[in-house]
Amino acid sequence: LVSDAIAEVAPDPVEQIVAIIEKKYTPLPRDEKGRRRMSNALARMGYGWSEIRSALSQVEESIEHWEEPDE
Hints:
The chain is mainly alpha-helical. The protein has helices at residues 2-9, 13-24, 32-44, 49-66. The chain has four helices and no strands.
């Protein structure tokens, strides 16, 4: 009962990470060093590696969806 109420109120950590990435790291770093720095910063904020990976996947999918194909 209590955990259900908390789950409804507490935001999804992956959604929070996606919001942070979209706000602070736009455009998304393309090189490994930039991605590592971003991931490490998110980890220092208290997010888990699996949550960070999931959020990065979501952001990359949305970028691919909105990018126009090369002609």
